[in-house]
Structures are given as C-alpha cells and as structure tokens.
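Q: Got a minute? One more chain.
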Amino acid sequence: MSTESATVGEDAVDTEKAAAKETPDTQADGTTPANPAGGGRPSVSRTFRRAGFAVLVVLALGATATAAVFGLQLRDAKAVESAAREASDVARQYAVTLTSVGADLESDFAAVLDGATGEFEKMYAESSEQLRQLLIDNQAQAEGVVVESGIKSATPTKVEVLLFIDQSVTNALVPEPRLDRSRVVMTMELVDGRWLASQADLP
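A: Always. Here it is, folded:
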C-alpha cells in the first residue's frame, strides 16, 4: 500500500467521525434539521386550537353555573310570590272572622281558634271566656270588612300582611252602628299546609 492511499483512507475515517459527533439538533452548516416524525413542540395552529377549546369549555361551564343560579333565584322568587298571595287571601278572610261576632258566639270563637296558631292561639283561647261573657252582657255584635291590604314582608313559610279594617259595632247602649277603623299587621305562618295567624298587632 502506498503512502498516498493510506492518507486518503485516514481522511475518510476522520470525516465519518466528525459527522457522528454532530448533534441531531444542529447540522454542519448550523441549521436545525426538520422533524419528519412530527415530534418536539406542537405547531402554533394546534396550540391555538387547544387554547380556543379550553376557553369554550370555561365559558360553557360559566354559562351553566350562571343559568343555575338564576334558575334558583327565579324559583325562590316565585315561591315567595305564591306564598304572599296565598297568605294574603287567607289573612283577609281571617280578619273578617276575627272582627265579626253575631248571635252564635260558639261558632264565631271556634272559627277564630281554628285559624290561629302559636302564641296568638294560646292568648285568644285564654281570653275567649271573658270576651264571650262581655259580648253577652252588652249584647254586642260586630261586622268587619277589609278595606285594603298589602304585603309587609314575605318568605315561603311566613308572611306579614298589613290590613285596613272597618268594623261596624252595635251594643245595648249604642244600638246605632258605630264604625271603627283599624290597621292590623297579621303574621301568617304555613303550618301543615295551612296558612294560620300567629300574631295580630295594632301598629
């Protein structure tokens, strides 16, 4: 083998070693090779697609939560509105029962107690005997009429109703009807599916 052939062989070996030492990210000319397998960082368009999808998911969850909150608020508002309407109707009827007495006192008193609850029922029951005797002694009769009413406060189970009542009263000393006007705040409570009066105040 000649000296020239040996030199050429050594140069070829040195060239292959130099090529093997180059990193996969950088070619000999300093450029980054293409990634034919699609590895490495995701493309810009793919990143934006993923970000857009995440935003849509967040917006959808937010809209669902907002709709749920509004739905609960609407349901609660309807429940309060329904309770106020029902309690007001019962309070108006009960106010007439409470302020009207006739010849049949037993029936009148029983009707009042039937529509009462709590402390108001207890108080009326305790004073009913004395009141009955007072009405009998004075031959008193009365008829109440609700002139106007409004809701003072309301929850699904408790409603305060403001009532304006005209009561026509007669007795043995004053046979001609006398008109008494009063304002009553009646508290109605939902007990076993019935609206009952738990308090009646004269503000």
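A: The radius of gyration is 45 Å.
Q: Perfect, thanks.
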